[in-house]
Design a protein that fits this description.
The chain has 18 helices and 10 strands. With 447 residues, it is α+β, with helices and mostly antiparallel strands. A hairpin with a 6-residue loop joins strand 6 and strand 7. The radius of gyration is 28 Å and the shape is globular. The relative contact order is 0.09. It comes from Allocatelliglobosispora scoriae.
Length: 447
């Protein structure tokens, strides 16, 4: 059957007809590559881009050239993206990734980026090409440098000696850049000189650091004490390492969003304990629970806050989520929880706290007229926001409170920290009971 007829069948007819045409084109191999690639590049075609891409990657290595051409120069982002996926699928059919690794030296930064991304996805299979990826850490294009840095940790622990060798022997420009790659792969592999320099830098920055608003996503505790050692003891935290406030925040957010890169305990292997801030010490980390079940978490948070309040007189547990509207607060005094609230949680403890007065709770909905949003395009966020602001004024609707609203009144709001806070001492990152026998979580952190 002629290739043109197969292409026609690939874009029309019942699914079995299209599947049969795709199979015949794949059997033709290199002879079909140019025609299928032309379909993928076409502005208008009866064949979907993903269908043409699927045929190309199933043909395999003979399709590599046209795929690279599309990565390099096609104006449509969708076509370039499908070509990138096709490159990855071609790589999966190769026993030797050298044809992909050679693309790391391609003149086009798009191709170099796609090649690095493809090797990243092949994991330890790409380890023989670690040297070429390391070279890209000094690429003139920032996106290529970034992608190479992301790819190297995925090559596994075997990449560490190559990074250490560059860190030790150079060349000069790469020596600085591999430091981040080492931290992203295995922070414990940093040599003693680098670790000592890191400690010195932290000490220097601590002297002049000013509190700054934090990005909040997760749990933190607030304890009315300046005794950091007592906080560490009460939470069974050990091996405190001095950090800047910026570094502590970076570690907490990294651990919350890393997805557990070591094992089930890696997300709560360490906690960030702040310096005393206006007489309060804040602790960031999932110390109460190893379980993500909300009922288990709620019970354990209440128990921990009650116990800590017996030691410090009061203890608050707060949660904010950056991914949705979840928020929670737990207020304990002298050994007992006096208020617990969580969005859409079945259990509340205690009457509304005075700090909640004048606010709506997050799951409370104000009564509005049936025609409140008549004439407003609900897809237009700006228009919806403007109407909501007007409705609040017209109907005296109070603001909605969140954990930061409560923290701002009762302790310290981490999202509003600034030079107005009195700072005593320095912050530390400490190991939890789960983290004491684990390696340092990988990830380069801001200092």
């Amino acid at each position: 059957m002629e290739i043109t007829e197969l292409l026609d069948r690939l874009g029309a007819g019942a699914q079995p007809v299209r599947q049969a045409a795709a199979a015949e084109l794949i059997d033709l191999g290199e002879d079909a590559v140019a025609a299928v690639a032309a379909l993928m590049r076409a502005d208008v075609s009866t064949v979907a881009t993903e269908t043409a891409a699927s045929v190309l990657w199933r043909i395999g290595l003979p399709a590599l050239g046209p795929v690279v051409e599309m990565l390099d120069g096609h104006p449509a982002e969708m076509v370039r993206w499908k070509a990138s996926l096709a490159l990855g699928s071609i790589a999966d059919k190769l026993t030797d990734l050298a044809p992909v690794a050679r693309l790391l030296a391609h003149p086009s930064p798009r191709v170099r980026t796609a090649a690095a991304y493809t090797l990243q996805g092949r994991g330890e299979r790409a380890l023989p090409h670690a040297g070429e990826l390391i070279t890209l850490l000094d690429d003139p294009d920032p996106q290529v440098r970034e992608r190479a840095g992301w790819a190297l940790p995925h090559l596994g622990p075997g990449v560490v000696p190559a990074l250490q060798r560059i860190r030790r022997d150079g060349p000069g420009r790469l020596r600085a850049r591999v430091l981040t790659a080492l931290a992203d792969t295995d922070p414990d592999a940093l040599d003693l000189r680098d670790k000592a320099a890191l400690r010195r830098l932290i000490r220097v920055k601590q002297l002049t650091e000013v509190p700054a608003p934090m990005h909040l996503c997760g749990l933190w505790l607030a304890l009315p004490t300046t005794d950091q050692a007592a906080v560490l003891a009460a939470l069974d935290l050990s091996d405190p390492f001095p950090v800047t406030m910026r570094l502590g925040e970076s570690a907490w957010n990294h651990d919350n969003h890393s997805g557990g890169v070591l094992d089930d305990h890696s997300g709560h292997a360490r906690a960030y304990v702040t310096p005393a801030l206006d007489g309060w010490t804040l602790v960031f980390g999932r110390t109460p629970s190893h379980d993500h079940d909300p009922d288990t978490w709620a019970e354990q948070t209440q128990r921990q806050c009650a116990e800590l309040s017996g030691v410090f007189g009061a203890a608050h547990g707060y949660i904010m989520s950056c991914g949705d509207g979840f928020t929670s607060w737990c207020i304990a005094e002298h050994g007992a929880v006096i208020r617990f609230y969580a969005v859409e949680h079945d259990t509340e403890i205690g009457p509304p706290h005075p700090a909640e007065a004048g606010y709506l709770l997050p799951d409370q909905r104000p009564a509005l007229p049936a025609d409140a949003f008549d004439g407003v395009d609900l897809r237009d966020q700006a228009a919806v926001g403007a109407r909501w602001d007007q409705l609040k004024l017209d109907h005296a609707i109070p603001d909605t409170c969140t954990a930061t609203t409560i923290a701002r009144q009762l302790s310290v709001d981490p999202a509003a920290m600034g030079p107005h806070l009195r700072v005593e001492g320095g912050g530390v990152i400490a190991r939890t009971a789960c983290g004491r026998d684990l390696p340092t979580p990988p990830g380069a952190l801001e200092i």
